[in-house]
Every structure is written in C-alpha cells, then in structure tokens.
Specification:
40% of the residues lie in helices and 21% in strands. The protein is α/β, with parallel strands linked by helices.
Length: 486
C-alpha cells in the first residue's frame, strides 16, 4: 500500500506552496530579462505566454541588481514585456528509473519518442559533483567495444574516459555507433548534442536497432535547439548514467559531441557579458569541461566508461577545446582524414592514439604482442617514403624488413566492416598469430592483470633486496676485518 502512494507522496513533497513571481522586462538576443522573481543561479523558472496556458521553461543564468537573466529552453516567439515569470524553487532535475531503458529524452528529461510519460519515482539533479576521489574503485577490468584495433592496441578499462578526435566527416559518429552495438556494458547512455535532425532516427533504426535500444537511453538536443538545450543535454546524459552506475551497473556513456557543448556555453557566456578569451571562448567554457568529464568514471558502486566525440576545428589538434578535453581524459583516439579517404574503417591513427590505462587491464603476454605490433607500425611509417619510392633495399635492417613483410597483415587486422562484431577471443587470437607471441588462456578473462604487482610494491621489493645485499656485503667486510686483526 505504501508503495502505491509513493508516487503521490513525492508529488506533494515537491509541490511549492509559496511561489516567487516576476515579470519580463525585455528580450535581448538569446537572453530574457525579468524583474524578479527571487531566484538563484541555475534555478528553473516558468514563463507564461500571454492569453494562453502554454509555458516556456528557462534557467537563471545571471543576476544583476534586481534583474534576472534567463536562458529559455525553447523559442522566445510570443513572449512579450509583462509575461509572468514563476520560480520553481529547484534546479534542473532528471527523472530516473529502469523505465528509462529504450526511451528518447530531450534536454529537460522529457520523453520525445511518443511512448507516453515516464513512470518514475526518483529524480537526479542534472548539475552534480563528481564522486569522491578517495572512494573510487580502481580500474582493473577490460571493457569490450567490438572494435578490434581498440580492444587490442588501445585496450580500455571499465570506468575509463576516452575522447575520439577528428575533423568533420572522418567517421566519429560511425565509430561510436559500432561501440554502442557491440559493447559488453550493461547499459548504454547516449547523448546526441548539436547533431543533425536526420541522425537521430538513423542512430536509432540503423545503428542501434531494436535489440540495442532495449538497453539504451538516448538524450537528444539537435543543432536547431537553443544553446541552453545543447548545454544541459550533456548534463542530463551524465545524470542518467550516474543513476545506473549507482545501481551497480557497468555503464557505457557516449556523447556526440563535446565541441558543440563548448559552442553552446560560448554563446551563453558571451550573451551574459563574459569577455572572450582563447579563440572567442570565455573562461567559463574551460571551467565547465573538467567539471562535466570528471563526473564519469568509477565510483564505490559501479562504473561509467565514457567515449566523447570531439570535433576538431580545422583539423588542428592544438585548438583550445581539443587540447583541454585531451588533457582531462584518460586516453585519446585520433582519426585520420587520409585513412578515411582510403576507405579505411575505422580510420584510427594508432601512433597518434593512446589508452593511458591499457597496462592495467592487459596480461603481460598481450602487452608484449601489442608492443611488437605497435613497433612494426611505427617502423613502417618512419620508412614509408623510402619504401614507396623503392629506395629502401631489403636486408638493410631486419626490423624494417619484418615491418614490410607484416604490413598487409597488420592492415587487415586493424580494419573491419562497419557491421562486424569482433569478440575479445577472436581479437586476441588474431593478435597472437600476428605477433607470433602466444597469449595464454588466463589473459582472455575480464581482469587478466588484477594480480599484477603495483610499481610501489615492486619498488619496495627492490629496496628490500638492496638492503639485504648491502647488509650481506657489510657482514663479509666485518668478517674479513676480524680475520685480518687475528
């Protein structure tokens, strides 16, 4: 009986009995200015259209004297001076629960898939703090993406955060959809931020399919939505992932893309009067990026493995957003335009990419095989011009000869069809055969490196051995000295 009334009890508890109101005094660019209501930064307000039951949600973005600066979650058409503004008394909250699986939400957590309202009893704040770093579980389990070159040469751990960096049209979204279909995570939470309208249904029908949608939640804010929608959709995506992590799940969060998130905050920051800094981005952009990214990863309950697409403006890997995101994450996957033009899928530049935690989730023999293949790729690239020009003479360098002999086999290994699913067993078998290094069965499990000693433990052992050796030498010296005295 108590559970039956829980829904209604929560509604009563969340209902504000005292409403603070104000009225619109002007609309300037992206912002709506009002006199009142009493509110705080981040609070959600409701603006009533004149002579209509229709309302518009807006978020408080700035306060100046008795003026409140509001950023609307929709079109301002129809708003006029004098429209009533009502403070809700709370920040943006996201409805959460198991019923979210298979649903598509907008930037406010409202369903937009035509399947009716969500039946949930719990809400998570869209704006939240990262987990306590002192309570985070270590990353020691491998996650499978179904992309062979990632699962072998750029192995990722459950709870790791990586960026996929590339210019436009190089295959970021396609790679993300492959991971969404094939990952062994319990739940997919996917944020489409500032993407084309066409890509929403394409992603649902072509990339995920019916089976993929059953374990996925999509949060959508397309390119035609307001800046605050594109900004807050990223936070709503993260909040949904945090809910499933708190249930002890291994969550795969995918966001496409972080650059449009930064663009949205740039538009808002400039509208509120912030001074532009690097390439027109105000300082708030560089403050918000790590605060958002650090919310993912492990906690004391579950994990969020995160892949963030980053649209590299002008293919410049040192532009401000790319540089900031790359420095915050636990690894980066760089896509090459030249490889994409050769119809090389995935167009991953192995030498420019790195997984910072691969050594923690791979067995020792696997690491040897990965090192060997990476070395052969590097040798071939260093000598590519000489090889292509016919200048290099076989026999000059045995390692380069091996790189040339293995080149086609390596190319076949790091490429796959878009609809292919590569299991970890198949990936490691092919890696072992390619590197000619045997990978034992115990390295095929999810946590092959769990018993590997840490650097601190190894250093401690070495120090103990050094002390023993020094003591032994000192003892022999004392004995010799005593013998000489006698």
């Amino acid at each position: 009986m108590k559970s039956f009334f829980k829904k209604y009890i929560n509604i009563v508890k969340s209902t504000e009995t005292i409403l603070y109101t104000g009225y619109v005094t002007g609309v300037k660019g992206l912002m709506i200015e009002s006199r009142g209501p009493r509110s705080v930064i981040g609070e959600i307000c409701t603006i009533k259209y004149p002579n209509s039951e229709k309302t518009l949600l807006a978020e408080v973005m700035g306060l100046e004297d008795n003026k409140v600066k509001l950023m609307p979650f929709g079109d301002t058409k129809g708003i006029e001076v004098g429209c009533e503004v009502i403070a809700t008394g709370h920040e943006l909250q996201v409805p959460v629960g198991k019923n979210l699986l298979g649903r598509v939400l907008d930037a406010t957590g409202t369903p937009i898939d035509g399947k009716g309202p969500l039946e949930v009893n719990e809400y998570y704040p869209a704006l939240a703090f990262p987990p306590d770093p002192m309570t985070k579980k270590p990353i020691d389990r491998r996650i499978v993406t179904g992309v062979r070159c990632i699962d072998s040469l750029l192995t990722c751990g459950k709870g790791q955060r990586l960026g996929i960096f590339a210019g436009s049209g190089v295959g970021k979204s396609t790679l993300l959809s492959t991971i969404a279909r094939n990952t062994n995570a319990d739940v997919n939470v996917i944020g489409l931020i500032g993407e084309r309208n066409r890509e929403v249904m394409d992603f649902i029908n072509r990339d995920l399919g019916e089976d993929g949608m059953k374990r996925s939640v999509l949060i959508v804010a397309t390119s035609d939505t307001s800046s605050i929608c594109r900004l807050r959709a990223a936070y709503v995506t993260t909040a949904v992932a945090e809910y499933f992590r708190d249930q002890g799940k291994d969550v795969m969060l995918m966001m496409d893309n972080m650059t449009r998130f930064a663009h949205a905050q740039r538009e808002i920051g400039l509208s509120t009067g912030e001074a532009p800094a690097q390439r027109g981005y105000p300082p708030s952009v560089f403050d918000m990026i790590p605060k958002l990214l650090e919310r993912t990863g492990t906690s004391d309950k579950g994990t969020i493995t995160a892949f963030y697409n980053v649209l590299v403006d002008g293919d410049d890997m040192d532009e401000p957003i790319t540089d900031k995101v790359r420095g915050t994450l636990d690894g980066h996957i760089v896509l090459s335009r030249s490889l994409a033009q050769q119809r090389h899928y995935p167009a991953i530049d192995i030498l420019q990419s790195i997984s910072r935690l691969s050594r923690r989730v791979c067995g020792s023999q696997t690491l040897k095989a990965v090192t060997k293949i990476s070395r052969l790729i590097a040798l071939y690239e260093e000598n590519r011009e000489m090889i292509m020009a016919g200048v290099y003479q076989k026999g000059s360098n045995p390692e380069v000869d091996l790189a040339i002999d293995k080149h086609q086999a390596i190319e076949d290994f790091v490429t796959q069809e878009e609809d292919a699913r590569c299991t970890i067993e198949d990936t490691l078998n092919k890696l072992s055969a390619l590197a000619e290094i045997e990978i034992p069965d115990e390295e095929y499990v999810e946590n092959p490196a769990v018993n590997r000693k840490t650097i601190a433990e190894l250093v401690k052992e070495h120090k103990v051995e050094d002390v023993v050796n020094e003591n032994s030498s000192a003892s022999r010296f004392d004995i010799s000295k005593n013998l000489n005295l006698q």
